[in-house]
Design brief:
By secondary structure, the protein is of the alpha/beta class. It has 13 helices and 8 strands.
């Protein structure tokens, strides 16, 4: 049972020592567990931010599954003497989610990313369409863009619940997505919820995922920087993170 798997701490943030297969097994367990289970996918930037944001730290600590998304976590775990099994990217894990939901006849709700522009669908709607192309038996219970006002949140939660969705995928960026799930965790009728950052944009094709070579060698950050130089502030989070890990030894 994955419940017995080891959970290590990196800069006081818990991370499950799992590989993709173990994460998938845990997902199957969570879908049978009462209440709304929380799945988080921290990378180096999120771990650094959790050290400065007590609310985010507590959310991660309360999660039912903490997936080591960033390659920096793998390097850090080796430096700390507790090497993680492998990096489990959020977008790859989402593929396992979709596969499980399709096989079990369960449904998903997509929340986040840009709204529809004139003459086109929202990113979430396009992502839903392409997910159904890849997983024909998948049920998409509903979608909603992420550019909403704070006072609209309760209406969105009601829409999620009335849709009958079994799984909630939130793409609002961290920590907004994690805080949204945690804030309404007791109200949500889904079996599990996850924050997936820019994964809906990748599914919709509005953002290109790094080629396999970059992914295999842990260089997705370099590809993203080349595609979006404006992300430099986020890119430098990795060396800052590694320095903090070295100092923590």
């Amino acid at each position: 049972m994955l419940n017995e798997a080891k959970r290590i701490e990196i800069l006081n943030v818990p991370v499950d020592m799992i590989d993709m297969e173990m994460a998938a097994e845990r997902l199957a367990e969570l879908m049978k567990t009462p209440g709304c289970s929380l799945i988080v996918t921290p990378n180096s930037e999120i771990i650094v931010n959790a050290g400065k944001d007590p609310e985010l730290m507590e959310i991660i600590r309360s999660a039912d599954l903490v997936i080591p998304d960033g390659i920096g976590l793998v390097y850090a775990s080796r430096l700390l003497g507790n090497p993680l099994k492998e990096r489990v990217t959020g977008i790859d894990f989402l593929n396992w989610v979709l596969d499980l939901l399709e096989k079990d006849g369960k449904s998903i709700y997509l929340l986040g990313s840009r709204p529809e522009a004139e003459g086109s669908l929202s990113v979430a709607e396009i992502a839903a369409y392409r997910m159904k192309e890849a997983f024909p038996g998948l049920k998409v219970a509903g979608t909603h863009h992420g550019y909403y006002k704070e006072e609209e949140e309760q209406d969105i939660v009601r829409d999620i619940n009335s849709s009958g969705a079994d799984f909630l995928c939130v793409a609002l960026g961290s920590p907004k997505q994690e805080k949204f799930i945690a804030r309404y965790r007791e109200e949500l009728g889904v079996k599990a919820a996850i924050g997936v950052g820019g994964s809906l944009d990748v599914w919709a094709g509005t953002v290109k995922r790094a080629p396999e070579f970059y992914r295999k060698h842990g260089l997705e950050w370099a590809y993203r920087f080349a595609q979006q130089p404006s992300r430099y502030k986020r890119i430098i989070a990795l060396p800052k993170f590694m320095i903090k890990v070295l100092l923590s030894r």
